[in-house]
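Handoff note, outgoing to incoming analyst
You'll be picking up this chain. Sequence as last confirmed:
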Amino acid sequence: MSGLTSQTSFVIDPNLHGTRLILSNFKSEEGLFKNLERNHSYLKTKFIADSTVIDDNRLEDEINIAIGDWKQYPWNKTVAKDLFLDYVLPYKVHGEYPDEWRKLLRMKLKKTLTTYAKNNSTTSEDIYDNLIVNGSDKWFKYSTNFTALTGYPSFNEMNLIKKGDCLRLAYLHVYLLRTAGIPATVDLVPYWGNRNGGHAVDVYHHASKLHNGTIRSLLPSKNQFLDHPPKVFRITFRKTNMWTDSIQPLIKKDPFCIEHLYKNDNLIDVTSNYTNVKNIRYTMENGTSKKLGYICVYNYCEWKPIYYGKISNQTISFPNMATNMLYRIALPTESGLKFIGKPFIFNNDGSCMFFDKQSKSRSDITLGRSSDEFSWIRKKEIYTLSVLNNKGYWTMHSKVEAKRDSSITFLRVRKDHLYKLTGNSRIDKCSRPFIYNNGVQLWY
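Most recent structure output, in case you need it:
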């Protein structure tokens, strides 16, 4: 527990004195904010040491309850000790305030779990379906429109707000599964590489075959498999020291630009569990004194750094990167990122297809969508076709008004380039890059 911290909310009164917010004192989100308004107070988050919250007696209770839940249920017979220690025993997922969720949920679920245990053929998949698919959505709903009191959702926060994004839903599912003695944690996709946004999903102990025929102990439910992510990181309670041992020694005076890895020693790379991966070795044209570089994906019209690579002999090495993905390389600077080279598609065979040639060959192209996210061409809408130039920037080719739905034609477009089509809708303005091959748009 040494060195572990938790983010929590403090109530700041008119005299700027702060007291920790006790969420269990409130029955609803509305009640909380009415109380703040009535007392002319506001909320502010800060990190506190876990050692100030959890004493020896609390730790002993956590251990005894967790061991009991692990041992007594038949669906946990195949759970090894190391899985128990990493993914059942921990009193929190990562970063959140350590509420006594295990006691609360054990009382709530004890009767239900005992009933399931009478059937010795019950599997962890059955428990998942009963507790989560048919259970948790009755009192906690997925929504992108919610109040986030902290960046790391505690059980009491979710119990009060009662709705949240995929990260909050995943944390809640982990609490429920660990209450049943089932090893569980969260896998994170910071950014997608072939669509916009990111994702988080709960993973738990069950044996299922993956794309490459191997078996892993922790996987998502059958309806939540992560489809072709550029990088996936698994949250672990046990320290992996990714930051302390691998990243921090490479940093000089430049700021570190990968938010999801910054000072995080509790992640492991599990990308290969979900998709085909290969190592990327990128040789720079010019020398540098930097010790690390970034590899970026295109997300919401920006290049977002998703992973780092070590630089040796002017070559940057990025291990276990998803193939068939659009990437761009950058170096750290005092002000952020400096892109080097051109964007490229990392092919399934490990080769890189760069977009740095100015093809003189032109042809007309007919497009049906402005994005891969269900954004079909609309009649009478004006669309702009942009082409990636040899410096890695988008340049406008032309603007055309669509004459009919689901089809628009641009004349004399340079072949073998990376393109982007934008319109006036919110989705259109965040459109994805694509290549055009034999009359088909292939999205990246």
